[in-house]
Amino acid sequence: MGRPRAFDEDEVVRAAVGLFGGRAYDGVSVDDLVTHLGVHRNSLYKTFGSKRGLYLIALRRHLADDVRPLLDALADAKDAEGALRLVTSADLRLLLLAAIERSPVDEEVAFEVTSALDSVDRAIADALGVPTDVATALTAAALGILLRGNPDKVATALTRHLGPLTRKGT
Question: What pTM, to 2 d.p., does this model score?
Answer without folding.
Answer: 0.87
